[in-house]
């Protein structure tokens, strides 16, 4: 957990340095301002917790389906190789037309 805490402290420090620099350059008033009617309208802090979670779920679903298809394809390929390596049926026993 110490690594996560250290990372968080670095991010906060970077943000404070950024705001201090913008304040020194007197450009804080030029930053965009975002206003929402309710906190529910605010974007989530992490992308994968917000709108991206739908795509992440789809990717996980696709990954599991592709794994299933791979297993099925391997089984089919194995059966085909077994059939190809076995002796062909005798055609001489078939009635001639």
Low-confidence stretches: none
Rg, Å, rounded:
31 Å
Question: How many domains would you count in the coordinates?
Answer: 2
Order of helices and strands: HH
* Percent in helix: 55-70%
Outline the biggest β-sheet: none
Q: Which band does the percent of strand residues land in?
A: under 5%
Arithmetic mean pLDDT: 80
Distance between the termini: 81 Å
Shape: rod-shaped
- Count every beta strand, where a strand is a DSSP E run of 2 or more residues: 0
Q: What structural category do the secondary elements indicate? A: mainly alpha
Q: What multimeric state do the chains show? A: single chain
What does this protein look like?
By secondary structure, this protein is mainly α. It is 59% helix and 0% strand. It folds into 2 domains: 1-30; 44-86. The longest helix has 34 residues, at 52-85. The chain is rod-shaped, with a radius of gyration of 31 Å.
SSE map:
Blueprint: H1 2-24, H2 52-85
Short description:
The chain contains two helices and no strands.
Keywords, separated by commas or semicolons:
single chain, 97 residues
